[in-house]
Amino acid sequence: MDRFVIEGPTRLEGELEVGGAKNAVLPLMAAALLARGDSIIQNVPDLHDVRFFMTILEGLGATCSLVGGELRLGTAEAEGREASYDLVRKMRASIYVLGPLLAFQGEAFVSLPGGCAWGPRPVNLHLEGMAALGAEIALERGYIHARVPRGGLRGGRFRFEPVSVGGTCNVLMAAVLARGETVLENCAIEPEVTALAIGLRDAGAVIEGIGTPTLRIQGPVTLRPLQQTVIADRIEAGTFMAGVALAGGRVRLTGVDTVHLDPITAVLREMGCAITEEPGAITIAADGRPVATEIITRPYPGFPTDMQAQLMAVCAVADGTSFISEGIYADRFTHVAELQRLGADIRVDGARATIFGVPKLQGAPVMASDLRASAALVLAGVAAEGTTIVNRVYHIDRGYECIEERLASLGARIRRESV
Ligand code: UD1
Known about the structure:
Blueprint: E1 2-8, E2 12-17, H1 22-31, E3 38-42, H2 48-59, E4 63-67, E5 70-74, E6 82-83, H3 85-88, H4 98-105, E7 107-111, H5 124-131, E8 136-140, E9 143-147, E10 157-159, H6 165-175, E11 180-185, H7 191-202, E12 206-208, E13 215-219, E14 227-229, H8 234-247, E15 249-254, H9 262-270, E16 274-278, E17 281-286, E18 294-296, H10 308-316, E19 321-325, H11 335-341, E20 345-349, E21 352-356, E22 365-367, H12 371-383, E23 386-391, H13 394-397, H14 403-409, E24 413-418
Parallel strand pairs: 2-15, 3-14, 6-7, 10-11, 18-19, 22-23
Antiparallel strand pairs: 1-23, 1-24, 3-5, 4-5, 7-9, 8-9, 11-13, 12-13, 15-17, 16-17, 19-21, 20-21
Helix pairs in contact: 1-2, 1-7, 4-6, 5-6, 6-7, 8-10, 8-12, 10-12
The structure holds uridine-diphosphate-N-acetylglucosamine.
């Protein structure tokens, strides 16, 4: 098992290219199951989650290759209908195959994902949305068994309550092959959802309202294989920005969409960072302690839950008391106890954390518990005095490509050790 050894504090200085978005590529990979032939997706990051999703697609009979950022998915013989418990429990995003398998194969057996480190993560909206298209859904021994009715899926009307990224993607993928009009209301408008809708539309789907909360889909269509370039990872960009806010320095990030970063940029500006935007690039500079702030995570265009842990690390060294409320996953605070090991002063009450800023963090051994929590610990380690050891970095490899090499290129003293 690998770990990172970080010697701090160091400032971060230089330039980095941001990779393609994990949360955009996974639904696109699932969408390849909606057509026969070879889908080609560009700007694909080489992440453990992407490799794992390739394994799932291979299990369904697809051929997959990822070389130099180009992902080829051949579905000519993808006849499988099952995603097993063993796969789904390792990666919740496996649930994305449900909609495509139901709509294209007519039947799907997909394990129920179960909970995760930050509490229950239900999929009832995925199932209710597909039921609104006429799907017959049964829960059998831990598996979702979904079947199209006689005559196939038909258009329907469904409202997501609350807004769900996964639910919107899954039901949208099923709806493009349903007969007639489907109206999906209160859809997630995260850039990754919009990217999926664009990918489907470019492949022949008829979708109105892309980028808005109401999607109108006319079906059925015979989709062509996908040809898409993955959008930049706003969370990866935001993570490096948080690193500068925490450790100080100046970094220019290229290959970004600055509009997607607006919710993150707004908070970091309030915290005293100097941020300048150019088309496709953003530069952040920070010196001295950040200013305390108040953050509530919300669906896009609100502040992303996937940046909550990293911003908490910034708040930990802010001048003053900060408040962070988690509006998506009330229990998503597994990083708090580890940040406390680095000297942070944080109190959690329900879904709200109060962070009393301290002048400096101190290095210590810590344990990564999930992807974004791990990123927060790595950033904290870069800024902390002394040696920080982040154990269980496989969490971070799921969603950041070679983060240690990229932070090292900005001046961080960080190395990977196998233990
Ligand atoms: C969520 C985040 C996404 C993030 C991902 C991984 C939002 C809106 N979603 O996406 O940005 O990248 O975690 O960290 O910020 N819910 C139900 N029933 C369902 C599905 C969801 O009640 O069937 C609830 C969830 O409990 C949660 C909210 O809806 O409170 C949003 O969940 P959802 O967007 O579906 O979760 P993910 O797709 O995992």
